[in-house]
Amino acid sequence: MDVYKVQRIKEPVDICVEVPGSKSITNRALLLAAMGDCETLLKGVQFSEDSYNFLKAIKELGFKTDTDEAAKSVRITGMNGLIPASEASIYVGSAGTAARFLTAFTAMGNGIYTLDSSEQMKKRPMKELLEVLENLGAKFTWLGEEYNFPMKVTGIRKKILEDGFFAADRTVSLNIDRSSQFLSALLMTAPAVFNFLAINLTGSRDARSYVEITEQMMKQFGHRGVERLGQDTYRVLCGHYHIKEYQIEPDVSAACYFYAIAAATGGTAIVKHIRKDSLQGDMKFIDVLKDMGCHTEWTDDGELKLYAPENRKLKGIDVNMADFSDQALTLAAIAPFADSPVTIRGVAHIRGQESDRIAVIVNELGRMNIKCDELEDGVIIYPGTPLKTMVHTYNDHRVAMAFTVTGMAADGIEIENPMCCKKTFADFFNIVSSLYK
Hints:
UDP-n-acetylglucosamine1-carboxyvinyl-transferase, Chain, 4-stranded mixed sheet, alpha/beta
Protein backbone atom coordinates (compact mmCIF):
# COMPACT_ATOMS: atom_id res chain seq x y z
CA MET A 1 0.00 0.00 0.00
CA ASP A 2 1.73 3.15 -1.26
CA VAL A 3 -1.04 5.57 -0.25
CA TYR A 4 -3.90 5.38 2.23
CA LYS A 5 -6.91 7.54 1.34
CA VAL A 6 -8.50 8.51 4.62
CA GLN A 7 -12.27 8.70 4.61
CA ARG A 8 -13.90 11.44 6.62
CA ILE A 9 -16.29 10.27 9.34
CA LYS A 10 -19.33 12.53 9.05
CA GLU A 11 -21.43 10.93 11.78
CA PRO A 12 -20.34 10.28 15.37
CA VAL A 13 -18.64 6.90 15.65
CA ASP A 14 -18.59 4.50 18.60
CA ILE A 15 -15.12 2.97 18.67
CA CYS A 16 -14.21 -0.20 20.53
CA VAL A 17 -10.82 -1.59 19.56
CA GLU A 18 -7.81 -3.49 20.85
CA VAL A 19 -4.25 -2.28 20.32
CA PRO A 20 -0.92 -4.12 20.59
CA GLY A 21 1.10 -4.39 23.77
CA SER A 22 3.23 -1.43 24.71
CA LYS A 23 6.47 -1.17 22.72
CA SER A 24 8.19 0.63 25.58
CA ILE A 25 7.21 -2.07 28.06
CA THR A 26 7.81 -4.93 25.58
CA ASN A 27 11.41 -3.93 24.89
CA ARG A 28 12.16 -3.31 28.56
CA ALA A 29 10.64 -6.69 29.41
CA LEU A 30 12.72 -8.46 26.73
CA LEU A 31 15.89 -6.99 28.19
CA LEU A 32 15.02 -7.63 31.84
CA ALA A 33 13.98 -11.23 31.08
CA ALA A 34 17.29 -11.84 29.28
CA MET A 35 19.13 -10.41 32.29
CA GLY A 36 17.10 -12.55 34.71
CA ASP A 37 18.16 -15.70 36.52
CA CYS A 38 15.31 -17.96 35.35
CA GLU A 39 12.96 -18.72 32.48
CA THR A 40 10.43 -15.90 32.08
CA LEU A 41 7.15 -16.03 30.15
CA LEU A 42 6.24 -12.62 28.69
CA LYS A 43 2.56 -12.24 27.79
CA GLY A 44 0.91 -9.53 25.67
CA VAL A 45 4.11 -8.96 23.68
CA GLN A 46 3.97 -6.36 20.91
CA PHE A 47 5.11 -7.95 17.65
CA SER A 48 6.22 -5.02 15.51
CA GLU A 49 9.30 -4.18 13.47
CA ASP A 50 10.97 -2.71 16.55
CA SER A 51 10.29 -5.67 18.82
CA TYR A 52 11.25 -8.17 16.08
CA ASN A 53 14.65 -6.50 15.84
CA PHE A 54 15.04 -6.51 19.61
CA LEU A 55 14.06 -10.17 19.90
CA LYS A 56 16.32 -11.18 17.03
CA ALA A 57 19.23 -9.39 18.72
CA ILE A 58 18.56 -11.26 21.97
CA LYS A 59 18.73 -14.53 20.01
CA GLU A 60 21.95 -13.47 18.25
CA LEU A 61 23.47 -12.83 21.68
CA GLY A 62 22.86 -16.50 22.45
CA PHE A 63 19.74 -16.45 24.60
CA LYS A 64 17.27 -19.33 24.40
CA THR A 65 13.86 -18.04 23.33
CA ASP A 66 10.50 -19.55 22.41
CA THR A 67 8.10 -17.28 20.52
CA ASP A 68 4.34 -17.78 20.00
CA GLU A 69 3.00 -14.85 18.00
CA ALA A 70 -0.57 -16.16 17.99
CA ALA A 71 -0.54 -16.18 21.79
CA LYS A 72 1.45 -12.89 21.90
CA SER A 73 4.02 -14.55 24.14
CA VAL A 74 7.78 -15.06 24.38
CA ARG A 75 9.75 -17.30 26.75
CA ILE A 76 13.31 -16.23 27.50
CA THR A 77 15.86 -18.08 29.58
CA GLY A 78 17.96 -15.49 31.37
CA MET A 79 21.63 -15.93 32.28
CA ASN A 80 21.74 -13.77 35.42
CA GLY A 81 23.26 -10.74 33.72
CA LEU A 82 25.69 -12.66 31.49
CA ILE A 83 25.57 -12.73 27.68
CA PRO A 84 25.94 -16.32 26.38
CA ALA A 85 27.71 -15.40 23.12
CA SER A 86 31.28 -14.12 23.39
CA GLU A 87 31.00 -12.65 19.88
CA ALA A 88 27.93 -11.56 17.94
CA SER A 89 26.68 -9.08 15.35
CA ILE A 90 23.31 -7.51 16.05
CA TYR A 91 21.04 -5.06 14.24
CA VAL A 92 18.95 -2.65 16.30
CA GLY A 93 16.88 -1.21 13.45
CA SER A 94 15.23 2.18 14.03
CA ALA A 95 14.08 1.68 17.61
CA GLY A 96 15.59 4.05 20.15
CA THR A 97 14.85 1.54 22.91
CA ALA A 98 16.70 -1.27 21.12
CA ALA A 99 19.60 1.00 20.19
CA ARG A 100 20.14 2.43 23.67
CA PHE A 101 19.26 -0.63 25.77
CA LEU A 102 21.19 -3.20 23.73
CA THR A 103 24.22 -0.95 23.41
CA ALA A 104 24.34 -0.59 27.20
CA PHE A 105 23.74 -4.33 27.69
CA THR A 106 26.57 -5.38 25.37
CA ALA A 107 28.81 -2.71 26.93
CA MET A 108 28.30 -4.46 30.28
CA GLY A 109 29.00 -7.83 28.64
CA ASN A 110 31.83 -10.33 28.54
CA GLY A 111 32.56 -10.37 24.81
CA ILE A 112 33.08 -8.36 21.63
CA TYR A 113 29.92 -7.33 19.78
CA THR A 114 29.28 -5.53 16.50
CA LEU A 115 26.20 -3.30 16.44
CA ASP A 116 24.52 -1.71 13.42
CA SER A 117 21.29 0.20 12.83
CA SER A 118 19.04 1.66 10.16
CA GLU A 119 20.07 4.89 8.45
CA GLN A 120 17.30 6.62 10.39
CA MET A 121 18.76 5.54 13.75
CA LYS A 122 22.23 6.75 12.72
CA LYS A 123 20.82 10.29 12.78
CA ARG A 124 19.45 9.98 16.32
CA PRO A 125 21.28 10.86 19.55
CA MET A 126 23.67 8.29 21.09
CA LYS A 127 26.81 10.17 22.11
CA GLU A 128 25.83 11.03 25.69
CA LEU A 129 25.24 7.36 26.52
CA LEU A 130 28.32 6.13 24.67
CA GLU A 131 30.61 8.57 26.46
CA VAL A 132 29.36 7.37 29.86
CA LEU A 133 29.81 3.72 28.86
CA GLU A 134 33.38 4.52 27.78
CA ASN A 135 33.97 6.18 31.13
CA LEU A 136 32.70 3.05 32.87
CA GLY A 137 35.21 0.87 31.01
CA ALA A 138 33.62 -0.29 27.77
CA LYS A 139 35.80 0.01 24.66
CA PHE A 140 34.30 1.17 21.36
CA THR A 141 35.71 0.88 17.86
CA TRP A 142 33.85 3.17 15.45
CA LEU A 143 33.12 1.50 12.11
CA GLY A 144 31.75 4.72 10.67
CA GLU A 145 31.15 8.11 12.27
CA GLU A 146 32.41 8.50 15.85
CA TYR A 147 29.84 7.87 18.58
CA ASN A 148 27.34 6.38 16.17
CA PHE A 149 26.37 3.13 14.50
CA PRO A 150 27.96 0.93 13.25
CA MET A 151 30.34 0.19 16.10
CA LYS A 152 32.20 -2.62 17.81
CA VAL A 153 32.02 -2.79 21.60
CA THR A 154 34.26 -4.71 23.97
CA GLY A 155 32.26 -5.31 27.12
CA ILE A 156 33.30 -4.22 30.59
CA ARG A 157 33.29 -7.80 31.92
CA LYS A 158 35.77 -8.80 29.22
CA LYS A 159 38.07 -5.91 30.16
CA ILE A 160 37.82 -6.99 33.80
CA LEU A 161 39.08 -10.46 32.86
CA GLU A 162 41.79 -9.29 30.45
CA ASP A 163 43.09 -6.12 32.10
CA GLY A 164 42.23 -6.57 35.73
CA PHE A 165 40.15 -3.39 35.39
CA PHE A 166 37.40 -3.08 37.97
CA ALA A 167 35.70 -0.33 39.91
CA ALA A 168 32.89 -1.76 41.98
CA ASP A 169 31.49 1.64 42.98
CA ARG A 170 31.24 4.36 40.36
CA THR A 171 29.71 7.79 39.89
CA VAL A 172 29.02 9.26 36.45
CA SER A 173 27.40 12.37 34.98
CA LEU A 174 24.78 12.02 32.25
CA ASN A 175 22.79 14.49 30.14
CA ILE A 176 19.33 13.22 29.14
CA ASP A 177 18.06 16.38 27.41
CA ARG A 178 17.97 14.51 24.08
CA SER A 179 16.68 11.17 25.40
CA SER A 180 15.67 9.77 28.77
CA GLN A 181 16.41 6.32 27.31
CA PHE A 182 20.09 6.93 28.14
CA LEU A 183 19.22 6.86 31.84
CA SER A 184 16.88 3.88 31.53
CA ALA A 185 19.58 1.91 29.71
CA LEU A 186 22.11 2.50 32.49
CA LEU A 187 19.68 1.77 35.31
CA MET A 188 18.62 -1.58 33.87
CA THR A 189 22.06 -2.86 32.84
CA ALA A 190 24.40 -1.57 35.56
CA PRO A 191 23.39 -4.23 38.14
CA ALA A 192 25.07 -6.85 35.92
CA VAL A 193 28.52 -5.39 36.67
CA PHE A 194 28.59 -2.70 39.34
CA ASN A 195 28.04 -3.02 43.06
CA PHE A 196 27.01 0.63 43.12
CA LEU A 197 26.47 3.14 40.32
CA ALA A 198 25.44 6.73 41.02
CA ILE A 199 24.20 8.76 38.06
CA ASN A 200 24.22 12.54 38.38
CA LEU A 201 22.01 14.19 35.76
CA THR A 202 23.11 17.35 34.00
CA GLY A 203 21.15 19.48 31.59
CA SER A 204 17.64 20.85 32.02
CA ARG A 205 15.22 18.04 31.14
CA ASP A 206 13.08 16.90 34.06
CA ALA A 207 10.47 14.89 32.10
CA ARG A 208 11.02 11.31 33.20
CA SER A 209 7.78 9.37 32.83
CA TYR A 210 9.57 6.65 30.85
CA VAL A 211 12.30 6.47 33.48
CA GLU A 212 9.56 5.89 36.05
CA ILE A 213 8.36 2.96 33.90
CA THR A 214 11.91 1.60 34.00
CA GLU A 215 12.14 1.94 37.78
CA GLN A 216 8.77 0.28 38.33
CA MET A 217 9.55 -2.60 35.96
CA MET A 218 12.90 -3.24 37.63
CA LYS A 219 10.99 -3.67 40.89
CA GLN A 220 8.39 -5.90 39.23
CA PHE A 221 11.21 -8.09 37.91
CA GLY A 222 12.54 -8.46 41.46
CA HIS A 223 15.30 -5.83 41.63
CA ARG A 224 14.65 -3.22 44.31
CA GLY A 225 18.06 -1.59 44.46
CA VAL A 226 17.32 1.58 42.51
CA GLU A 227 16.44 4.88 44.12
CA ARG A 228 16.40 8.61 43.47
CA LEU A 229 18.56 10.77 45.71
CA GLY A 230 17.11 14.23 45.32
CA GLN A 231 15.88 15.49 41.97
CA ASP A 232 18.91 14.79 39.81
CA THR A 233 20.78 11.78 41.20
CA TYR A 234 19.93 8.11 40.80
CA ARG A 235 21.63 5.22 42.56
CA VAL A 236 21.41 1.63 41.38
CA LEU A 237 22.88 -1.33 43.27
CA CYS A 238 24.00 -4.79 42.21
CA GLY A 239 21.10 -7.24 42.14
CA HIS A 240 19.19 -9.94 40.28
CA TYR A 241 16.09 -10.00 38.11
CA HIS A 242 13.71 -12.87 38.78
CA ILE A 243 10.12 -13.28 37.59
CA LYS A 244 8.43 -16.36 36.13
CA GLU A 245 5.63 -14.59 34.25
CA TYR A 246 4.98 -10.97 33.23
CA GLN A 247 1.92 -9.40 31.58
CA ILE A 248 2.66 -6.47 29.24
CA GLU A 249 0.15 -3.62 29.18
CA PRO A 250 -1.61 -2.46 25.97
CA ASP A 251 0.21 0.40 24.23
CA VAL A 252 -1.33 3.65 25.49
CA SER A 253 0.59 5.52 22.77
CA ALA A 254 -1.37 3.53 20.18
CA ALA A 255 -4.63 3.84 22.10
CA CYS A 256 -4.43 7.63 22.02
CA TYR A 257 -5.01 7.75 18.25
CA PHE A 258 -8.44 6.20 18.70
CA TYR A 259 -9.38 8.43 21.61
CA ALA A 260 -8.29 11.38 19.42
CA ILE A 261 -10.47 10.15 16.54
CA ALA A 262 -13.50 10.18 18.83
CA ALA A 263 -12.60 13.63 20.13
CA ALA A 264 -12.24 15.09 16.62
CA THR A 265 -15.32 13.46 15.07
CA GLY A 266 -17.81 13.85 17.92
CA GLY A 267 -17.93 10.17 18.88
CA THR A 268 -16.95 7.85 21.70
CA ALA A 269 -14.04 5.46 22.10
CA ILE A 270 -13.06 2.47 24.22
CA VAL A 271 -9.64 0.86 23.88
CA LYS A 272 -9.85 -2.49 25.60
CA HIS A 273 -7.66 -3.48 28.55
CA ILE A 274 -6.33 0.02 29.34
CA ARG A 275 -5.63 0.00 33.08
CA LYS A 276 -6.29 2.59 35.78
CA ASP A 277 -2.86 1.84 37.25
CA SER A 278 -1.07 2.03 33.89
CA LEU A 279 2.66 2.73 34.07
CA GLN A 280 2.61 4.70 30.83
CA GLY A 281 3.05 8.47 30.74
CA ASP A 282 0.87 8.84 27.64
CA MET A 283 -2.17 8.42 29.91
CA LYS A 284 -1.67 12.16 30.42
CA PHE A 285 -3.00 12.69 26.89
CA ILE A 286 -6.43 11.64 28.15
CA ASP A 287 -6.27 14.55 30.59
CA VAL A 288 -5.42 16.86 27.68
CA LEU A 289 -8.54 15.68 25.84
CA LYS A 290 -10.60 16.30 28.98
CA ASP A 291 -9.18 19.83 29.21
CA MET A 292 -10.28 20.29 25.59
CA GLY A 293 -13.88 19.47 26.50
CA CYS A 294 -14.10 15.66 26.38
CA HIS A 295 -15.17 13.61 29.36
CA THR A 296 -14.42 10.05 30.42
CA GLU A 297 -15.71 7.24 32.58
CA TRP A 298 -14.54 3.84 33.69
CA THR A 299 -17.27 1.41 32.67
CA ASP A 300 -18.63 -1.46 34.78
CA ASP A 301 -16.34 -3.72 32.73
CA GLY A 302 -13.31 -1.67 33.78
CA GLU A 303 -12.86 -0.02 30.36
CA LEU A 304 -11.90 3.62 29.85
CA LYS A 305 -14.57 5.30 27.67
CA LEU A 306 -14.07 8.77 26.22
CA TYR A 307 -16.87 11.04 25.00
CA ALA A 308 -16.31 13.97 22.63
CA PRO A 309 -17.65 17.41 23.66
CA GLU A 310 -21.41 17.58 23.31
CA ASN A 311 -21.17 20.50 20.90
CA ARG A 312 -18.49 18.62 18.89
CA LYS A 313 -16.10 21.56 19.35
CA LEU A 314 -12.76 21.12 21.08
CA LYS A 315 -11.28 23.87 23.22
CA GLY A 316 -7.87 25.39 22.62
CA ILE A 317 -5.14 24.58 25.11
CA ASP A 318 -1.59 25.53 26.10
CA VAL A 319 0.23 22.42 27.36
CA ASN A 320 3.76 21.31 28.22
CA MET A 321 4.10 17.81 26.75
CA ALA A 322 7.69 17.13 27.81
CA ASP A 323 6.62 14.06 29.77
CA PHE A 324 4.40 12.53 27.05
CA SER A 325 5.94 13.89 23.89
CA ASP A 326 4.96 10.91 21.70
CA GLN A 327 1.50 12.49 21.69
CA ALA A 328 2.64 15.89 20.41
CA LEU A 329 1.85 14.81 16.86
CA THR A 330 -1.54 13.44 17.93
CA LEU A 331 -2.50 16.72 19.57
CA ALA A 332 -1.24 18.64 16.53
CA ALA A 333 -3.43 16.45 14.31
CA ILE A 334 -6.65 17.51 16.09
CA ALA A 335 -5.58 21.09 16.89
CA PRO A 336 -7.16 22.60 13.72
CA PHE A 337 -10.59 21.56 15.02
CA ALA A 338 -10.26 23.52 18.28
CA ASP A 339 -12.05 26.82 18.88
CA SER A 340 -8.82 28.70 19.69
CA PRO A 341 -5.07 28.15 19.28
CA VAL A 342 -3.38 25.01 20.60
CA THR A 343 0.13 25.54 21.98
CA ILE A 344 2.49 22.59 22.49
CA ARG A 345 5.60 23.27 24.61
CA GLY A 346 8.50 21.40 26.16
CA VAL A 347 9.19 19.04 23.26
CA ALA A 348 12.45 20.34 21.74
CA HIS A 349 13.86 16.80 21.94
CA ILE A 350 11.36 15.46 19.38
CA ARG A 351 13.41 17.19 16.68
CA GLY A 352 15.87 14.30 17.07
CA GLN A 353 13.42 11.42 16.79
CA GLU A 354 12.48 9.45 13.66
CA SER A 355 11.94 12.84 12.02
CA ASP A 356 12.16 16.45 13.18
CA ARG A 357 8.61 16.24 14.46
CA ILE A 358 8.21 19.94 15.21
CA ALA A 359 9.20 20.82 11.64
CA VAL A 360 6.94 18.05 10.34
CA ILE A 361 3.94 19.48 12.22
CA VAL A 362 4.58 22.94 10.77
CA ASN A 363 5.22 21.64 7.24
CA GLU A 364 2.32 19.20 6.95
CA LEU A 365 -0.31 21.36 8.63
CA GLY A 366 0.97 24.27 6.54
CA ARG A 367 0.30 22.25 3.40
CA MET A 368 -3.27 21.82 4.69
CA ASN A 369 -3.45 25.65 4.95
CA ILE A 370 -3.38 25.54 8.75
CA LYS A 371 -1.37 28.40 10.25
CA CYS A 372 1.42 27.41 12.65
CA ASP A 373 4.05 29.34 14.57
CA GLU A 374 7.17 27.26 15.15
CA LEU A 375 8.73 27.61 18.60
CA GLU A 376 12.16 26.46 19.72
CA ASP A 377 10.56 23.79 21.91
CA GLY A 378 7.15 23.37 20.29
CA VAL A 379 4.50 24.93 18.08
CA ILE A 380 1.37 27.10 18.14
CA ILE A 381 -1.41 25.80 15.88
CA TYR A 382 -4.36 27.99 14.87
CA PRO A 383 -7.90 26.79 14.10
CA GLY A 384 -8.88 26.20 10.50
CA THR A 385 -10.35 23.80 7.97
CA PRO A 386 -7.68 21.41 6.66
CA LEU A 387 -7.46 21.40 2.88
CA LYS A 388 -7.01 18.32 0.73
CA THR A 389 -3.39 17.15 0.70
CA MET A 390 -1.02 14.21 0.55
CA VAL A 391 0.72 13.92 3.92
CA HIS A 392 4.44 13.19 3.69
CA THR A 393 5.32 10.73 6.46
CA TYR A 394 9.15 11.01 6.47
CA ASN A 395 9.21 7.26 7.22
CA ASP A 396 7.99 8.17 10.71
CA HIS A 397 5.29 5.86 12.05
CA ARG A 398 3.77 8.50 14.33
CA VAL A 399 3.38 10.99 11.48
CA ALA A 400 1.41 8.42 9.48
CA MET A 401 -0.89 7.49 12.34
CA ALA A 402 -1.42 11.00 13.73
CA PHE A 403 -2.44 12.66 10.47
CA THR A 404 -4.80 9.80 9.72
CA VAL A 405 -6.74 11.19 12.69
CA THR A 406 -6.89 14.58 10.91
CA GLY A 407 -8.22 12.88 7.79
CA MET A 408 -11.08 11.28 9.69
CA ALA A 409 -12.41 14.75 10.55
CA ALA A 410 -11.56 16.52 7.25
CA ASP A 411 -11.98 15.80 3.55
CA GLY A 412 -9.31 14.67 1.14
CA ILE A 413 -6.38 13.67 3.37
CA GLU A 414 -4.10 10.96 1.98
CA ILE A 415 -1.20 9.31 3.75
CA GLU A 416 1.98 8.61 1.81
CA ASN A 417 3.91 5.44 2.72
CA PRO A 418 1.37 4.43 5.36
CA MET A 419 3.05 1.12 6.19
CA CYS A 420 5.92 2.88 7.91
CA CYS A 421 3.54 2.35 10.86
CA LYS A 422 4.65 -1.29 10.98
CA LYS A 423 7.53 -0.05 13.11
CA THR A 424 5.18 -0.21 16.10
CA PHE A 425 1.63 -0.94 14.89
CA ALA A 426 1.47 -3.00 11.70
CA ASP A 427 -2.32 -3.47 11.89
CA PHE A 428 -3.16 0.21 12.40
CA PHE A 429 -4.76 0.87 9.02
CA ASN A 430 -6.73 -2.37 9.09
CA ILE A 431 -8.24 -1.29 12.40
CA VAL A 432 -8.91 2.22 11.07
CA SER A 433 -10.65 0.76 8.01
CA SER A 434 -12.85 -1.38 10.25
CA LEU A 435 -14.27 1.78 11.83
CA TYR A 436 -16.13 2.61 8.62
CA LYS A 437 -18.14 -0.63 8.60
